[in-house]
């Protein structure tokens, strides 16, 4: 099945990469089901996609709540008959040396970036197996590929997800499930707005992100590429980073 008419649920669709992915997939004819906590943004996005001739629905999703992920999957199935793809995109980061002991930040990253993806897997797998087909796409990070100081826990959460997907791939060689890990480098989004408490450091990170970061639509195109493959072709890993990123 080509990308047009596929039903794609996206977590973290209210800004950045998730929003760009929703717009891009909808422009290619996919039906998008959007989840995030900021519903006013989702509702606006649904209306804009509809005004452009696309099809979208939205539901409030906090990925730390298993029931919210089940509701996202149910919305896709009840409104559009099936779920072809779940894009596990919602994520947060905190930047800081481990010695700063940002225990609350570490915990939040594990809750959203790791448990949030597990909640999505738990919600979608039964539907994928019942349908005899499904595709799980996760947005991980180049932080997990090149480990740098100040991003240890964030990188660890992303590599945990990479591990889950490789295991899922090996456990599902019957052709039912495709798994894809997308690793963006620096992307110009709101991600860093809550990443650092010190306003001066935050401004500095923002400035370098604005200079070096790529447009989120670059990641959206990569996600579309993975989704658009024929059923017997799985794009396992894709890295998209600024050409000038070290
Ligand atoms: P944004 O901050 O713009 O988007 C993050 C999204 O995640 C928002 O839509 C937010 O929605 C959602 N989100 C956060 N917490 C929760 C939660 N508990 N439940 C549901 N949704 C949540 O950043 P990006 O677009 O950059 O981030 C998207 C993904 O890309 C993340 O996984 C991030 O780690 C990854 N990434 C980003 C890179 C970058 O340079 N920007 C680089 C590599 C990876 P809301 O607040 O409305 O719930």
TrEMBL record:
State the name under which the record lists this protein. Oxidoreductase
Q: Transmembrane: present as a keyword of the record?
A: no
Q: Work out whether the entry's keyword set contains Oxidoreductase.
A: yes
Q: Which GO terms describe its molecular function?
A: oxidoreductase activity, acting on the CH-OH group of donors, NAD or NADP as acceptor
Q: Which keywords appear in this protein's UniProt record, sorted alphabetically? A: Oxidoreductase
Q: Which Pfam families match?
A: adh_short
Question: SUPFAM superfamilies annotated for this entry?
Answer: NAD(P)-binding Rossmann-fold domains
Ranges for domain Ketoreductase: 6-189
Q: Which PANTHER family does the record associate with it? A: DEHYDROGENASE/REDUCTASE SDR FAMILY MEMBER 7B, DEHYDROGENASE_REDUCTASE SDR FAMILY MEMBER 7B
- Cellular component GO terms held in the UniProt record: membrane
Family named by the database record: Belongs to the short-chain dehydrogenases/reductases (SDR) family.
């Amino acid at each position: 099945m080509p990308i047009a008419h596929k039903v794609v649920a996206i977590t973290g669709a209210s800004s950045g990469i998730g929003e760009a992915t929703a717009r891009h997939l909808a422009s290619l004819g996919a039906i998008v089901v959007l989840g995030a906590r900021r519903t006013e943004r989702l509702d606006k996005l649904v209306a804009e996609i509809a005004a452009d001739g696309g099809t979208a629905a939205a539901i409030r999703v906090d990925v730390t709540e298993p029931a919210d992920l089940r509701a996202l999957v149910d919305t896709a199935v009840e409104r559009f008959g099936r779920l072809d793809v779940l894009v596990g995109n919602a994520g947060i980061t905190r930047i800081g040396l481990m010695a700063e002991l940002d225990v609350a930040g570490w915990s939040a990253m594990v809750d959203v970036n790791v448990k949030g993806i597990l909640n999505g897997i738990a919600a979608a797998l039964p539907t994928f197996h019942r349908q005899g087909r499904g595709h799980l796409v996760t947005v991980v990070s180049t932080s997990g590929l090149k480990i740098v100081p100040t991003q240890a826990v964030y990188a660890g959460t992303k590599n945990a997800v990479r591990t889950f997907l490789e295991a899922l791939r090996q456990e599902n060689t019957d052709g039912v499930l495709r798994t894809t890990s997308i690793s963006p480098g620096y992307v110009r989004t709101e991600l860093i707005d809550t990443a650092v408490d010190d306003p001066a450091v935050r401004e500095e990170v923002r400035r370098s992100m604005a200079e070096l970061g790529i447009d989120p639509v670059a990641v959206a195109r990569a996600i579309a590429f993975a989704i658009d493959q024929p059923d017997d072709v799985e794009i396992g890993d894709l890295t998209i980073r600024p050409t000038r990123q070290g």
